[in-house]
Design goal:
This protein is an all-alpha fold and 105 residues long. It has a domain at 35-100. The protein is built from two helices and no strands. The longest helix is centred in the N-terminal third of the chain and has 22 residues, at 3-24. Keywords: Hydrolase, Membrane, Transmembrane, Transmembrane helix. The chain crosses the membrane at residues 6-24. One of its GO terms (molecular function) is acid phosphatase activity.
């Protein structure tokens, strides 16, 4: 991939991240609000490499979870994201019906 493509991807991720942070600061509920749809698209947490390079100096490093799996840091990040989302949408959770929830990984 060309360097300019990597720069574009990085800039888009930074912009998208800032938009999410700004949106998370907005108040959700007042007397006239009702929640119709919440849709999240996010990248998985930090993962270990999917394969090792033949001349990799860090070959000896342990990947306890296995190659391509979430690292402990990745698990912590996803857990923290879940807490943030739960706290933000808590007012709506009482009326939520599990049959209306769809999660996909």
């Amino acid at each position: 991939m060309e360097p300019s493509s990597w720069i574009s991807i990085c800039l888009m991720q930074i912009l998208f991240g800032h938009l999410i942070i700004l949106a998370s600061k907005l108040p959700l509920q007042n007397d006239n609000n009702s929640l119709l749809l919440v849709q999240f698209v996010f990248r998985h947490g930090d993962r270990s490499p999917i394969r090792l390079y033949p001349n990799d100096h860090y070959k000896h490093q342990d990947f306890n979870e296995g190659l391509g799996e979430l690292t402990n840091r990745g698990k912590q990040r996803m857990f923290k994201l879940g807490r943030i989302l739960r706290d933000k949408y808590r007012p709506y959770l009482d009326s939520m019906q599990i049959k209306n929830v769809h999660a996909r990984s």
